């Protein structure tokens, strides 16, 4: 399966690599290439961005994220110079949050437009929980870190392709179960109980997948 790739463009090589490392936790099967720094100093390099675009391209397209305005200029130029400029796109999004959201969407098999949308809407604001307190199913988070980065990513990916709207509530707030950042924003830790509700044609399947993942401790045995 070809997945949308990511390119992280930064004035700092270490910053680019760090963002890529965090995003990779959400997406083990997504290619994330970096273009950071200029000749060992701070800056952005057109050739490095072009090479990163090539490295991240698997046929499904590439989403480019950047840190500062001049990095966007270089990224835009590199995309424009591609043989097929429509095969990649630069997105205006918060770098870390956008990379995490885009990686999770790409891992789930989303197309280029959907990955762009995920990055652009990365902040994923939480909403007040106005549901009936008996709605949905209560689930105990038995893993050590609760709904932090990797478990939240696993939950979002588990729902890929399922026709259902799934909401996770905790502490009086609700999050879209497909938004990694919203799930993390709930602050639900190991030992906490969250309430999960689903609606839609495949609501039962969605609940089954969430329950199965929770029973397996979100495949986590230690923090990270």
UniProtKB/TrEMBL annotation:
Which part of the chain is the HPr domain? 134-221
Q: What is the name of this protein?
A: phosphoenolpyruvate--glycerone phosphotransferase
Record keyword Kinase present: yes
Supply the source organism's classification: Bacteria, Bacillati, Actinomycetota, Actinomycetes, Pseudonocardiales
Print the keywords alphabetically. Answer: Kinase, Transferase
One protein family per Pfam: PTS-HPr
GO MF annotation: an example = kinase activity
Domain named PTS EIIA type-4 is located at: 3-137
Q: Which reaction does it catalyse?
A: dihydroxyacetone + phosphoenolpyruvate = dihydroxyacetone phosphate + pyruvate
Record bears the keyword Transferase:
yes
What organism is this sequence from?
Actinokineospora xionganensis
The UniProt function text for this chain reads:
Component of the dihydroxyacetone kinase complex, which is responsible for the phosphoenolpyruvate (PEP)-dependent phosphorylation of dihydroxyacetone. DhaM serves as the phosphoryl donor. Is phosphorylated by phosphoenolpyruvate in an EI- and HPr-dependent reaction, and a phosphorelay system on histidine residues finally leads to phosphoryl transfer to DhaL and dihydroxyacetone.
Record's subunit section: Homodimer. The dihydroxyacetone kinase complex is composed of a homodimer of DhaM, a homodimer of DhaK and the subunit DhaL.
The EC category is transferase
Enzyme Commission numbers on file: 2.7.1.121
């Amino acid at each position: 399966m070809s997945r949308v790739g990511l390119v992280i463009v930064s004035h700092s090589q270490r910053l680019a690599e760090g963002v890529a490392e965090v995003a990779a936790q959400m997406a083990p099967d997504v290619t994330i290439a970096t273009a950071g720094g200029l000749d060992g100093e701070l800056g952005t390099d057109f050739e490095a961005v072009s090479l990163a675009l090539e490295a991240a391209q698997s046929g499904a397209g590439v989403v480019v994220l950047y840190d500062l305005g001049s990095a966007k200029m270089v990224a835009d130029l590199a995309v424009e110079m591609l043989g097929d400029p429509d095969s990649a796109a630069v997105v205006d999004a918060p770098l870390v949050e956008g990379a995490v959201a885009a990686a999770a969407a790409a891992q789930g098999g989303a197309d280029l437009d959907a990955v762009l949308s995920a990055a652009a809407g990365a902040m994923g604001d939480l909403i007040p929980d106005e549901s009936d307190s008996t709605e949905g199913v209560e689930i105990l988070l038995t893993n050590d870190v609760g709904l932090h980065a990797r478990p939240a990513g696993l939950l979002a990916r588990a729902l890929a392709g399922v026709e259902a709207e799934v909401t996770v509530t905790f502490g009086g707030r609700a999050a879209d179960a497909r938004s990694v950042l919203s799930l993390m924003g709930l602050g639900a830790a190991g030992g906490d109980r969250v309430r999960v509700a689903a609606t839609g044609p495949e609501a039962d399947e969605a609940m089954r997948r969430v329950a199965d993942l929770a029973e397996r401790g979100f495949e986590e045995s230690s923090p990270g």
